[in-house]
TrEMBL record:
Residues 279-442 form the Thiamine-phosphate synthase ThiN domain. This is Hydroxymethylpyrimidine/phosphomethylpyrimidine kinase. One of its GO terms (cellular component) is cytosol. GO terms for molecular function: aspartic-type endopeptidase activity; ATP binding; hydroxymethylpyrimidine kinase activity; phosphomethylpyrimidine kinase activity. GO terms for biological process: proteolysis; thiamine biosynthetic process. Pfam families: Phos_pyr_kin, ThiN. Residues 19-261 form the Pyridoxamine kinase/Phosphomethylpyrimidine kinase domain.
Amino acid sequence: MRDPAPETRPVVLTVAGSDSGGGAGVQADLKTIEACGGFGTSAVTAITAQHTRGVESTHVVPVTEVTAQIDAVCEDIDVDVLKTGMLATEPIVDRVAEHAADLDVPAVVDPVLVAASGDRLLDPGAETAYEDLLAAATLATPNAAEAEVLTGVEVTDVERAVTAGQALLDTGVDAVLVTGGHVPGDVVRDVLVTPDGTETFTHPRVDTDATHGSGCTLASAIATQLARGDPLTEAVSAGTDLLERAVRYHHDVGGGPGTVHHLAALRERAARTPTREAVEEVVHEFVSADVGRVVPEVGMNVVGATPYAETPGETAAVEGRISRTPSGIAPNRGVRFGASSHVARLLLTAREHDPTLRFAVNCRFDEGIEAAFTAIDAPVVEVDRREEPAPDEEGSTMGWVARRAFDRVSGTPAVVYDRGDVGKEAITRVLAPDAETAVSRVHTLANRAE
């Protein structure tokens, strides 16, 4: 018999409606809470028959049963944060407001009024009842449409978001995050308004309509971070970062646009060990085959990205690169995450155009290797580095190289090369969707080079 090893995690109680399609509501809340390191409990306010295309029907749970669920949780479990979503009717809003006032814990209120599909999720008469709930809340997270309903302020930019947020502060809520996903533009701007000032969190807009469950996911992520002890600003920052990834790597499910991937950040962390092991195996293959013919003077690196990688810290590479030695080639040190900046940024920018890309290898360029390009059964693209701009704010021009390559070819390039410039070594860069393809392409260059 084994001894138990119990865990203690911060507890979040979500009071919200269910979504039979699994993308929003209580289902989204519980997935997100667990993904962020919390323990999720729930009180269901309404049962909706919905999917990615809309809401088919709604059955509101009697207010006495909503109360019974909240009481059952709170009498047995120490709740660290209360999070609310779809509350459906005025009596439920009133009752939840009473609980929020009585519970001595932070409360995050997502004022769910209308589904992303346009279906109404709150009785019109219940809107004014939100004032008492907001008065007991730590944070409200309305989107632009919800903020307009609650304040009468049409949110079209950051300034109007601040105006709406300040109007909501008059209800007594401690802070307001007016989310910008519904405001047109290439950049999403979420505006946090507090009595002490404002702060804007910006992210590039993901070109997709698969945002079903985004509001629930964001509010739940923030609530869990607060339950873990994060200050409000840090919790909001973590929540908006999580949502950006959840939208980009959304679930392609259903006949509608799809739903956000609540566990994308968790999946990214889970993919790190197999990604590191894959890079180690590629390095082993190169050392065993002695591909020194294609190792450049600056050294070769092998970079592997997790399927959800967004930053160099989420890519594995050889620390110190791979160098030629009198007896072959050898890595200078081991493989770790964040070991590459240069090649990693090339790969990450390439993934903006083709997210299936997972590996990149920088190799030597000369006439012999150029002759071997004919054996690569995929696009090979030349980039003229004499045209590249000054290094960007991150000190790297590799993003420009990747963007330039994709601009010059239809599809995804397998090889991107340049002939160098003053102070810049000529380089061949191999891109691949998996480790096996990366090995094959580099071996082809090494074996076919004249």
